[in-house]
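Here we describe the complex-level prediction in full. Unlike the single-chain runs in Section 2.1, the two entities below were treated as one system.
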Amino acid sequence: MLFRYIKILAGCPLNWALVFAYIISGSQLHAQSEYDLSLILDQDGEDHDLEEDISLLQDLSLDKLASESQLLRRLETLSFLSQQDIEHLSEIEDFSMAHRMVKKDEISDRLRVVLNIILRRDHTTRKQQLRINQYQSFNRDMRYKYKIHYVYPNLDAGMLLERDAGETDVFDHRSFFVTYEKNSVDLFLGDYQIASGYGLLSWSAFPLRKGFESVTSLSRIGKGIRRYSSTHESWGYRGAGVRWTTSFGILQAALNSRHQDGHLDSTGLAIINVSGLHTSARSILEKKKLTERSAIVQWGFDKKYATIFATHTVRHWLYNKSSTELEQGSSIAANVRSGNRSVFGEVAVGFNSKTGCLIGVEWKTKVLHYIFAVRKYSPGFRGIRMNPVAEFHGRTLNETGIFQGFRLRQKRNRLIIYGDMFTRKLPAHTNSNVSSGNEFGLRWEWRKQDRYFKVELKQGISWLEIKAIYPGEYGVGLTRLRQLRLISRMPIFNGQLVKMQVIWQTRDNNEYGNGINLRFSWRNDFVTVALDWVSTKINSSNVRIYFWDVNLPGELITKLYANSGHSIGFKVNYSNRGQFSTGLRIRTQWKDLKLNGKPIISGALYTEVAF
Amino acid sequence: MKIGFCAFEASPLSSVNIGSGQIHINFNHQLLNCFIDPGSLAGLKTFGIELASAHPFQISGITQETAVLGIPVKDWGFAAGYNSLGNKLYRETTFSLMVGKKFFGQMAIGTSLSYYELHIVNYGSAGTIGLNASLSYNILSNWILVTSFRNINAPRIGSSGEKLPQVVYTGFSAKVNKNVKIQGAWEQDMEFQGAIKFGIMSNFLNHLTVSAGYVSYPAQICAGLQLTLKNLSINYAVSVYQNIGRMSSQLGIGIRIHH
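The structure predicted for the assembly as a whole is:
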C-alpha cells in the first residue's frame, strides 16, 4: 500500500526545488534579490536576526501552490516590514494590484523588494512541492543545517536539522512544524512563535532595536501565531496552536511543552541557557533539564481602523521532578488608526504581577513621518517570551524611556532623526544607584535605482551613579559613544556593483574603533562573484564594529570585528538555469594590521537542486 | 578499513574506496560500502555477495572480516552485513540491515540498522543499536552529492555508557570521462577533528580498476586495485599512515548473480 502511494506521488508533477527564487528564474534573479535584500536591509549589523524572515520569504517565492492573495497575506508576517508596509499590503488583493503598488513612490524600499521577489516567481502551479536546503560552514569545526519544506494545498510542513560547531550530537537541534489552513481555521503543530502586541509578553527572538528603523517599525503590532523554523534553539514554543477567525474576532490559543537547557535558581527563577551550545561541562549538564509548560490565549480583531488584541498566558516549570508555581501574565495591545494618525501601545501585567507599558502616537504623510513613544517597565517585569523595545535587556526588565523619531522624504532624499532617553533603578545591593542615558541619531540618504549614498551620525551617553564608601556620597560614571558611518553603493559597467562603507566610532574619547569595508560584485547568467575587504583599527572591544559578511543565498549574516586587522572575503555562486546551484564563501582574517600571524580561515558551502 | 581511536570506529569499505582516500561514497556500486552509504542500494540491480579481510596496521593477530549480501526487490535494494574486528581477547562485531531506494528518479535515500556487540574475554559482552542514514542526488548528469550520517541515535554501550562514534560525511563523486572518476569528501567526527579526503579511480584497462587517494587526518596515502572477471571481482587496497609509518591492507572478493 505504501509502495502504491509513493508511486502515485511520483506520478504527480512533484517539483523539487531548493531555496530561493533563482531556482525558477535563473541565477540573475537570485543575485538581484539577494543583493536587494542585503542592501535595503542595510542597517547596523546588531539589528535583529532575520533568519526566520528570510526562510519565510524563500518559501513564499518558491511556493507554487498558494493563491496570490494567500501569498500576499503571508507577506504580512515578515517582521522587518513596518506597520505602514503592512497597511499597504492589506490593500492588495492580487498580483495585478501588487504590480501597481510596486510603482508607487510612497511605499518603502523593503516592501518594494519583497513584492518584486514574489511577483517574479514562477507562476506555473504544482499540486505539491518539496524543497531541501543543505548548508555547511567550516571553521575549526563543521556546522551544518538541513531544511526540508513540503507544501500541499492548505498544508505546509517543514523540518530543520542542525548541528553547531563543537556539538557532540549529529543533530543537536531538531525542529519541525506543520500548518494547516482551512477556511477560517489555521492549525499549528510542532514549533511555532507568537508575536503579541509590542512584545511585552511574547515576541520573536530578537527585539526591535532603537534606531533609525524604529521610526517606521515601532508601531508595528504583532498579530499572533506563526510557524517557527529558526536555529535559535530556545525561543520557539513546541506543541499545538489554533487561529480561528470569526465574525466576533480572531481567537488564538496554543499549548506548549518543551525542554530547555538550564536550571532553577534558589528563588525558583528559571535560568535558561539561550546560546544553544552544548560544549562546556555545565552546558552539557544542563541540556534539556528544564521542562516548560505553558498556555496562551489571545482574542482580538484586526480591522482597517484598529487592531486590538488581549492576551493571557500561564506557565510553570518542571525541574528534577519538582514543579514551580504557576505564573500568569496578561496584556492588552492596540493600534488605532484615523487618517494619517494612529495611537498604539500595550499595557501588561507580567509574571510576578509586575507591570509594563509602551504607548505611542504616530503621524505620517507622504513626506513626513513622526513617532513618539513612552515605555515603562517596572523593576522585575517578566513575560513568557518578552522582547519589547528597550535599552536594557535581560531576564527581567527595569526601565523608563521616551523615544521620538522623525523622517522626511523629499524626492530621492530621506532624512531620519531619532532620540531616546532612558533610565532605570538598579537594585540596592549593587554598588551603583541609577543608570540613565540618551541616544541620538541622524541619517541622510540619497537613492536612485542602484545608486545609493548614506551618512549616519549616532551619539549615546549613559550615566551611572556610583555609591562611594561614605553614606550619602555618590560619584558619577559617564560613558559617551559616538559613531559616524558613510555608505556608498554604485553600479559600474554592465550593472556590476561596488559598495563602500566607512565607520568611525569613539567611546569616552580614548577608545576608538574605525573600519572600512569595500565590496565588489560581478555576475553573469550563471556565475555571481563577490570580493570583500575589511580593515579595522580598534583599540577596545567596547567599540566593536559590524559589517555584513559575504552571504550565500538564504543568509544574512553580519560579522563582528573587535580587534584591529584585515579580512578578505570571497564568494562564488553558480547556477545552472534552475537545475542546480551551488555556492561557496571563504573568509580569511588577520588580527594584526601588519598581517602578522596565522590567518583565521572560515568558509561555507551550500547546494541546491531542482528536480 | 579505517582505524581510529575508539570502539566501532572502523567502518567497512570496499578496497576501491579505501584506495580512493577512504571515501564513503559508493561511487563504484560495491556492497561493502553500504554500511556507510545505504542509499546506494537504490541502484542495486543484481544479487551479490562481497567478502573482505583486512589487517589493521599489520599487527599480527588483529584482523577485520566483512561480509555483505545484497538483494534487489523491485525498486528497493536490501542488504545484510557482518563486520568483525579484533583478536582472541577483544572483538567488535556489527550486524547490519540496510535498505535504499531512489525517489523521483534522482534522489536516493537509505538507512541501516546496526547491532553492535563488544566482547572482551574474561570481562564480558555488551551491545547496542545504531541507526545510519544517507541521502544522495545528482547535481549534474555526471556528478553526485552524498551526505551520510552515522549513529544518528547517539548510541552508548556498556554499563558505563561509552559513546559510539557519530560521524557526518559530505562528499561528491564526478565522472570525468568513461574511465575516470574523482571524489572528494569532508568527514566530521563529533568528537575529533574533521578530515578532508580526495581520490581518483580509473578503469583504463577493461578488467582492471586502480584508485589512489589521500586523507588529511590521520594523514594517509591510499591505493587500491580491482580485477573484474565477468561476475567475479578481486580487490586489494593499502593505506599508509604517515604519522606512525604503518600500513593497513585489505583483500576482498565479490560475486554478482544476475537474476
